[in-house]
């Protein structure tokens, strides 16, 4: 992961540095990035197995990697199809009601519909932010307007600042690149 902090204090995080200001983030005291520690198989496999089919179908529909969808689901709901956030986001991929409607999700608690709607939304965000995964994930978490207000950077919200690296780390553990 690469990061830089601009003059306003906003942190910009990406997996594809397109600017010399980005610096490689290294582990404390390390000189080389280390591979993420593997997630214990039973812990990772339970949710992954349970929702493998809807994730595979959504990946096929959108062209997104299954590992990316699994990473978002793990970060958003920890594979709890009945999860509801304090802001009203629902289901595996924590869709807000307006987002669910926009992407044709009639029942956000239905795992297949939720994952497909979330995948379509993420695909839209990737197109909006020129395939910059970090920005698309920031927009998924904080909303695209927040990313645009931050100058097409990860907004300076603590939750979003934690969310983006967490999903990228989970995606790396899923075998994503």
TrEMBL record:
GO CC terms on record?
membrane
Stated family:
Belongs to the transglycosylase Slt family.
Domain Transglycosylase SLT: residue ranges = 56-153
Family annotation (PANTHER family) = MEMBRANE-BOUND LYTIC MUREIN TRANSGLYCOSYLASE C, SOLUBLE LYTIC MUREIN TRANSGLYCOSYLASE-RELATED
Its GO biological process terms?
Answer: peptidoglycan metabolic process
The name under which this protein is listed is Lytic transglycosylase domain-containing protein
Tell me one GO molecular function of this protein.
Answer: peptidoglycan lytic transglycosylase activity
Name the source's superkingdom: Bacteria
């Amino acid at each position: 992961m690469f990061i830089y902090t601009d003059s306003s204090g906003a942190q910009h995080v990406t997996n594809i540095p397109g600017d010399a200001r980005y610096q490689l983030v290294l582990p404390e005291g390390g000189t080389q990035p280390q591979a993420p520690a593997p997630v214990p198989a039973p812990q990772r496999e339970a949710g992954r197995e349970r929702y493998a089919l809807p994730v595979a179908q959504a990946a096929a529909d959108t062209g997104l990697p299954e590992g990316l969808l699994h990473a978002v689901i793990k970060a958003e709901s920890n594979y709890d199809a009945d999860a509801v956030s304090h802001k009203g986001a629902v289901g595996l991929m924590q869709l807000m009601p307006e987002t669910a409607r926009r992407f044709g999700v009639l029942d956000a608690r239905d795992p297949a519909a939720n994952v497909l709607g979330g995948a379509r939304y993420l695909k839209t965000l990737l197109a909006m932010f020129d395939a910059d995964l970090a920005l698309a994930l920031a927009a998924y978490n904080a909303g695209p307007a927040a990313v645009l207000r931050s100058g097409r950077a990860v907004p300076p919200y603590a939750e979003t600042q934690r969310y983006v690296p967490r999903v990228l780390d989970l995606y790396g553990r899923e075998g994503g690149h």
